[in-house]
């Protein structure tokens, strides 16, 4: 009896010991994996017939989530940028799109089909230390002006390439070379905007003129092909926001620190060269700083957006030499609200070639408006995963391979999320 009793007591002690040990072991596994014991046991069991279904369901849900957030006007995304994309520009024929990226590279994409799954692009590496901030085509798609920033100041480069001698589509384009360059063009101040237009007004010779706007108060005008400085103006408004050139190369308009917009006229000599740049009018009416502006296609109207929460459309086709002031044709409240319900302001504007759609951005939000009424045509609240840095309409329609003989008007946006997106009009 004593032996049997001792054996039973020993077995009970051993059982309790191993029970405590296994309990501690299970707790250790649970604390490491962060899973309940039942899940841990299932994961260690044999084949799991439900696992493929679970994986398939997860992928299926992700697809539905992507479709849910995919905007119907979003037609494509140009990926491959290594950093934030700060600027973009379409070529005059609309078939090429240049982008300025913080990774030190300018990419020129060929848009033969807006719905293509992949796009061919030309890669332009800027000299060491230069970060491209803005781009503008000069004359045609073989010449491009790049604004860059370094610690010593801003620079301008014009890259040009020769057309291939062979007429076949398989001929490789030669790498672009620097045709001209200027350094410290605005002392140590950064370039905010770089806009080019063909000088077709009056006796202009049709060559491209490019305006570079600094973060200071100066704006300089350049000859796109030769790089010659054609003139400069001073806004005298403490700090510039942006500047642009009218499509016919006649006017330069700038938004700066104040609520007024100043407009200068580029006067051309009989030989087509720039004779002078003179201030001709001032757009007065906003109650707070103007954040962005753009010209109509015929260069006779200007659209402005202000921090006062309004948009104004101005008629600048006036006899300013007889002291006739530009007139406000229309004014409407910006139809965008912040989280508190207050009216927001637009960061950027771009008017479609036909003048029927105004693209406007604020942060990561993209809106399409009717410039006649101010009505919202459509909204993409999260057009990018970061702030939108630039927005431009293609000057002409682009083929859409999803439909035979179909061409669409394309809007391009760039963002801090390293992406460039292509959109169609509502």
UniProtKB/TrEMBL annotation:
Residue windows of the WD repeats: 78-112, 283-317
Skewed-composition ranges (Basic residues): 54-71
Database matches in InterPro entries: WD40/YVTN_repeat-like_dom_sf, WD40_repeat_CS, WD40_repeat_dom_sf, WD40_rpt
Protein name: Transducin beta-like protein 2
Disordered: annotated span: 38-77
PANTHER family to which the protein is assigned, alphabetical: OS03G0858400 PROTEIN (PTHR45282)
Lineage, uppermost ranks: Eukaryota, Viridiplantae, Streptophyta, Embryophyta, Tracheophyta
A Pfam family the protein falls into: WD40
Segments passing through the bilayer: 6-23
Cross-referenced Gene3D superfamilies: YVTN repeat-like/Quinoprotein amine dehydrogenase
PROSITE patterns according to UniProt: WD_REPEATS_1, WD_REPEATS_2, WD_REPEATS_REGION
Gene source species: Genlisea aurea
Alphabetically ordered keywords of this record: Membrane, Repeat, Transmembrane, Transmembrane helix, WD repeat
């Amino acid at each position: 009896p004593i032996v049997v009793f001792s054996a039973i007591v020993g077995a009970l002690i051993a059982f309790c010991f191993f029970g405590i040990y296994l309990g501690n072991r299970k707790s250790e596994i649970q604390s490491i994996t962060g899973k309940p014991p039942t899940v841990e046991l299932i994961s260690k069991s044999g084949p799991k017939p439900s696992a493929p279904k679970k994986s398939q369901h997860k992928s299926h849900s992700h697809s539905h989530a992507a479709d849910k957030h995919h905007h119907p006007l979003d037609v494509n995304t140009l990926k491959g940028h290594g950093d934030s994309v700060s600027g973009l520009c379409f070529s005059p024929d609309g078939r090429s799109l240049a982008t300025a990226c913080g990774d030190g590279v300018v990419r020129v994409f060929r848009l033969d089909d807006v719905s293509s799954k992949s796009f061919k692009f030309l890669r332009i590496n800027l000299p060491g230390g230069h970060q491209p901030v803005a781009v503008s085509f000069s004359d045609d798609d073989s010449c491009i002006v790049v604004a860059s920033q370094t610690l010593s100041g801003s620079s301008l480069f014009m890259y040009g390439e020769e057309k291939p001698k062979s007429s076949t589509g398989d001929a490789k384009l030669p790498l672009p070379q620097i045709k001209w360059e200027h350094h410290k063009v605005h002392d140590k101040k950064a370039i905010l905007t770089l806009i080019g237009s063909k000088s077709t007004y009056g006796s202009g010779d049709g060559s491209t003129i490019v305006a570079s706007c600094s973060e200071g108060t100066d704006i300089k005008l350049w000859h796109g092909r030769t790089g010659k400085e054609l003139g400069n103006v001073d806004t005298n408004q403490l700090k510039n926001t942006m500047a642009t050139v009218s499509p016919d190369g006649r006017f330069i308009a700038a938004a700066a620190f104040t609520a007024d917009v100043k407009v200068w006229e580029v006067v051309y000599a009989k030989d087509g060269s720039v004779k002078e740049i003179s201030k001709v009018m001032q757009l007065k009416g906003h109650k707070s700083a103007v954040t962005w502006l753009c010209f109509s296609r015929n260069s006779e109207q200007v659209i402005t957006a202000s921090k006062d929460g309004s948009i104004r459309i101005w008629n600048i086709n006036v006899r300013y030499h007889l002291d006739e002031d530009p007139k406000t044709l229309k004014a409407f409240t910006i139809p965008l609200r912040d989280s508190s319900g207050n009216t927001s302001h637009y960061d950027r504007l771009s008017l479609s070639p036909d003048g029927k759609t105004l693209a406007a951005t604020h942060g990561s939000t993209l809106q399409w408006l009717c410039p006649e009424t101010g009505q919202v045509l459509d909204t993409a609240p999260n057009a990018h995963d970061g702030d939108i840095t630039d927005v431009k309409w293609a000057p002409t329609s682009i083929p859409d391979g999803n439909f035979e003989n179909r061409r669409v008007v394309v809007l391009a946006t760039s963002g801090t999320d390293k992406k460039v997106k292509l959109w169609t009009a509502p």
